[in-house]
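Protein in question quoted in full.
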Amino acid sequence: MAASLRSRLTDWTVSVPLLAVVTLLLTWGRELPGPVVVVVAAFLAGAVLAAVHHAEVVAHRVGEPYGSLVLAVAVTVIEVALIVTLMISGGEKAQSLARDTVFAAVMITCNGILGLSLLIGALRRRVAVFNSEGTGGALATVATLAALSLVVPTFTTSRPGPQFSPAQLAFAAVASLALYGLFVMVQTGRHRDYFLPVTNDGRVVDADGHAAPPSNRAALLSLGLLLVALVAVVGDAKTVSPAIESAVAGANLPQSFVGVVIALLVLLPETIAAARAARRDRVQISLNLALGSAMASIGLTIPAIALASIWLEGPLLLGLGGTQLTLLALTVVTGVLTVVPGRATVLQGGVHLVLLAAFVVLAASP
């Protein structure tokens, strides 16, 4: 027993998240020199890889589509905490942080993760196959949430600027939670098979039927370590954010680009997990992760921000600008055309990745 415990503790998937949290505790709230920033960044990368490993263990145990929800919701909950923390301490420059971060998450998930998954799946099997009914429903939910929370505030007239009135913000928060809750019920209930992998002839298959699932004890341990790793990922990302802000300012990039960098870091676990799933011919699982993460990012962030706005000072800017609205509209239209056939080639994957590249370039040079 003692030897088994020692072996488990020396496993990098256990030791790295724990060391990353220790590093977080030692460096939190301090101004770090360059070498220490490098060390923190190394533990951040290790925590990301560990989070992916433990998420896959839990997903294998609970089965799909529950497994995809585990990583998406866990990352998003901690991401929300990070946004609220930065908004409380950020002053005027944080008034648009929620908008910038949520929009970045939508573009990264709906173009970056989705495009990468389709590209990998198509390169492996010539055509990436997925369930258009489940994926289409998820995309419709993401588009509705994004429009209600990020597009409508640009055109409302109750308040000056791209912001909601308190009543409008309350409605957006309740609607976001309701839609997300309804989607989870559909995904895990009577239409669960819409979100399972399919074969080329349309047959639904068990995502991990080829391997025995881990024990309850192993799954619970991985769940705990997943949460530890995610805390380390977001916490260490916040720790290195001053260095990122300095680098962004030194490169003469807009302040909003910091949100893009943080979103890229926080979404690394989903990106790696989706790429691994696509390599295993489980493109549907990759799309569940991509769209589920986008949905959770909006559906949980907006209600949290609505509550936090009670004590936050200054306006809460949620409405997107013209360039962002164009990119969001193009993403939704392209996503619909990609999803409807239930099959995609490298072309669709490449188109979505180009849209992500356009978002990053225009975020850096608006």
In short: Residues 2-364 form a domain with the A middle domain of Talin 1 fold (CATH 1.20.1420.30). The chain has a mean pLDDT of 83. The first helix runs from residue 2 to 10. The beta strands are 128-129, 343-344.
